[in-house]
Structure formats: C-alpha cells, structure tokens
Task: structure prediction
Amino acid sequence: MKILAFESTCDETAVAIVEDGRKILTDQIFSQAQLHAVYGGVVPEIASRCHVESISILAQKAIEAAGISRKEIDAVAVSYAPGLIGAVLVGVNFAKACALALNVPLIPVHHIRGHIAANYLAYPELEPPFLCLAISGGNTMLVDVRGYTDMEIIGCTRDDAAGECFDKTARVLGLPYPGGKPIDQLSQGGDDSRYVFPIAHVEGSPYDMSFSGLKTAVINLVHNAQQKGEELDRAGLAASFTKAVSDSLVPRTMMAAKELGYHKIVVAGGVAANSRIRADFTAAAKENGYQLFVPPLKLCGDNGAMIGAQAYYEYLAGTRAGSDLNAYATMEI
Result:
C-alpha cells in the first residue's frame, strides 16, 4: 500500500511516499530554518505562507522521485494536530484536495504518533508494546505504546518542552536558530559540572517534568554575567545545560519502563538527535538490560515519512477522514 503523506505542523514542509508503513519510497523536505533564523524562532505567518508556496512543488517532486504514477497512490495522509494552526491548515487542505482528486481515502495522523512511527522505518523488527519518550520543540512526553494506535501519556512536561529550552538557551548565548545542533556542537569538550542547574520534580507525578525553571536559570546566569562583565565558560554552560536536560529525561524513562515491565524503549523527536542524550540513553539501556531504539538523525526532525508510516497503521485500524477534516493547535495523542 502506497501512501502520499504531508507534514506541515511547524517550519518544515514535507511530502513523502511510504509503502506498507515500513519502506520510504521518497521523503522530500523543505526547511524554513534560514527564513526564521533572523527572528530567533518560528514566525507563524511566515511559516504558513512558505508552506503554501512549496507544498504543491514538493508533492510533484515526491511522485517523480518515487518513480510512480498518481494512479498508484492508495491513500493520502496528513498531520492534522498539534502544531501552528495556520501551518497545519495548509497541509490539511492540500491533502484533502489530493484525496478528492485521486479518489482515495484520507487518513488523519497525530504529529506525535508520527514521531513515534519514525522508528518503524528505521527498525523493521520494532513492534508494540513499548515505552516511548517523545522529545521535540513543542512536546515532551512519556507514552505507553500498547499498540500501533493504542497509546496513553503517562508523563509530560508541565510547561516548556525540552526542545524549546534548547532554542532559548541558544538564543541567550548568541547561537543560531534552531538551537539544538549549535548547543550540541558547543558542548563538545565542555565540563558538564561547570555549572549546576535545577532538575524539577512534580510532587505526586513522578513521570511529569518541568523545564521552565531550567530555562530561567540559564537566562539569569548569562544576564548576570553580562551585567557584571564576567566571562562565561560557554562550552561548560552548554555541557552543563545538556546534562540537566538529560538527567531529567533518562532516569524517568528508565523508572517508567521498569514499572510498566517493558524491555523496549523508544526515543523520538527532534531532541533525540542530541549526542549527549543519545549516549546517556544508550548507557542506561545497557545497564538496565533494555532494548533501545533511537531513529537516525534524518528521521528525528519533522518529516513526511513518519506521517506515512503511522498512517498505514491508522488505515488498518479503520481511521478515515472526510472533507470536513479540520486542523488543531492542540490535541491529546
């Protein structure tokens, strides 16, 4: 089954064609990062307009790159929530038009379910049930994945997402947007004990997280140093900050896996590309005897292939949408 899939929830326009939920025939992505870099973050109106300009071009490129005809497309899928509402609407409306024109089913896909499904593309042997930590610019959550379409959030951030923390830390250090990769590069060789940052705990909710205090601590540290004319150990700060994020994520995930009785742990989302977090998860999984699945870097960020992968299992579960499908800025997984 060949699915034409669209992703436009933030600042990447992505169109992919995926076969049977496991094989990528093509994955076309246009990143708007350079357009938003001057503002230090995503400008929703610019993102929406850019999606409008690029989505039809990418769709045609995807079909050509896959070497198939339009008649060979069996279904159309689209990420319809959560995300920047204007950006999501572009993908949803284009996908509805495609499904209508091709006379094929339309499959709505939750964006975070797509991130989890990116691992199905990288690991053909991976099947539920398993525990997944989804970490991105807009979301940070622990998900009990009982089946391909049966999931429950058991813990999440109460405020900022881990990825947002990376972006804001990069901004205050004068690093380019998006901040994940620059922070990762700067932290290499830095002393992760140079600065001590807070790791929040939510009373009564051991799997919930909070990153606003960490973000504030970093900003205050940098601003105080600037006001006093003190020189910061930038590499040490980046390393200490990354350690604090990792120390918030890894132990909670291991604790949850033990309590749920899972031996398979999946990490997904853009922050999964961070080398320190990947290394810490690898070490912790080995120590606890767990199987760890982390997608390759190209599948960590937003992409259309992950939407096509999850769409296959949504289709098997009977999920369909009509011409009344709407976009949503927020939605439970």
